Design the sequence.
């Protein structure tokens, strides 16, 4: 066990489902619980890319002295029931629960079990901005790219659990709620304590990086979430890369293999598959002097992780013409807000010349491992729909 942390125990229990969430739990622990070991529960997804990143992040967490419990939470129709049953005792004993995605149906269901008096929400990317606003306005918890759509059967089935989770995330006489974030917040829910994530742990453990003369590009999953048309996205990537001399494209963990293959063939970019969140990859280096991104979490986090270096982050706005006909009515406003509230970044219009960056404020995340072909399924099977609240988890 690392001397940086004490004995792990049941008093602080953290739940994560993505590498970025796990990174931000480590940042929270560094800032608010130094020397205290956490019990960190990984609710593993089935996606091989995400699983690989989570494995590597789990190793870093163990190096910090934290206890990691890996749960095959989506390994079959009975997995949700087995996972929740196995965690019930820990949840009831925990005095503090740290979570990375309040929109997750898994997390919402677990919140109905815990008796913890302290709840901490760490960043799950730009979704945190939407969560804070919805909590402040007393709205139901809905991811921004789905907002405005008609609730499906699973949403209706899960509605009582979601409502209960929202109440538990609202401060009361016997419950304290903290949000630990690097995201800007226009609305702060009454009674909620807000802590700033400055990526101090990342800067203390990694870097400073070696900086190259060229430009690197950060990918996004806006195509995969149905927000941006794939053809328009490919054209935008090609134009941006040519204008700024980008040579590498750091893929988002959710980007499809087919799309990445097309990008490699049609743009000539070297596709880099992430092994860790981009904040860590960039901090370790080598990294381009300019990092190009579309609206995403990295326009808020990278300037913090790379503070003190000469790296410039530039963000390209999403042209409304790129949106799909199925995109949420909320999409354009949300994406504009992500860009407009970023600090220490240069803002690029979709048609801007590389010589005319418009200074603004910024930061988000990705990772590394050269693209050499489609990742194998590693024998994994996808979640199977089952009735009831636990069965509805798979779609959340």
Sequence:
């Amino acid at each position: 066990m690392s001397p940086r942390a004490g004995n792990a125990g049941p008093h602080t229990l953290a739940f994560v489902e993505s590498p970025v969430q796990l990174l931000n739990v480590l940042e929270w622990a560094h800032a608010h619980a130094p020397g205290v070991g956490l019990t960190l529960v990984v609710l593993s997804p089935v996606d091989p890319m995400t699983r690989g990143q989570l494995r590597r992040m789990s190793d870093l967490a163990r190096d910090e002295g934290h206890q990691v419990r890996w749960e095959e939470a989506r390994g079959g129709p009975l997995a949700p029931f087995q996972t929740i049953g196995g965690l019930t005792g820990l949840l009831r004993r925990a005095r503090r629960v740290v979570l990375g995605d309040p929109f997750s149906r898994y997390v919402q269901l677990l919140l109905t079990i815990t008796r913890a008096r302290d709840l901490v929400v760490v960043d799950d990317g730009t979704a945190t901005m939407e969560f804070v606003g919805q909590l402040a306005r007393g709205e139901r918890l809905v991811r921004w790219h789905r907002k405005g759509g008609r609730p499906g059967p699973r949403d209706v089935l899960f509605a009582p659990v979601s409502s209960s989770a929202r109440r538990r995330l609202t401060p009361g006489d016997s419950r304290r709620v903290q949000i630990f974030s690097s995201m800007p917040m226009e609305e702060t829910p009454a009674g909620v304590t807000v802590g700033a994530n400055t990526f101090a742990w990342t800067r203390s453990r990694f870097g400073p990086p070696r900086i190259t003369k060229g430009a690197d590009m950060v990918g996004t999953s806006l195509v995969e979430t149905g927000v941006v048309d794939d053809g328009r996205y490919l054209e935008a990537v090609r134009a941006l890369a040519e204008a700024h001399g980008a040579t590498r494209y750091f893929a988002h963990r959710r980007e499809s293999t087919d799309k990445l293959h097309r990008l490699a063939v049609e743009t000539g970019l070297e596709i880099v598959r992430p092994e860790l969140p981009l904040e860590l990859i960039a901090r370790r280096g080598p990294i381009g002097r300019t990092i190009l991104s579309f609206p995403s979490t990295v326009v808020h986090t990278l300037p913090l992780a790379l503070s003190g270096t000469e790296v410039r982050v530039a963000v390209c706005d999403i042209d409304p013409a790129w949106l799909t006909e199925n995109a949420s009515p909320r999409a354009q406003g949300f994406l504009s807000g992500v860009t407009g509230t970023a600090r220490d970044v240069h803002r690029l219009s979709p048609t801007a010349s590389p010589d005319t960056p418009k200074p603004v404020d910024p930061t988000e995340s990705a990772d590394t491992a050269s693209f050499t072909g489609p990742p194998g399924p590693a024998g994994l099977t996808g979640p199977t729909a089952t009735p009831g609240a636990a069965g509805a988890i798979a779609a959340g």
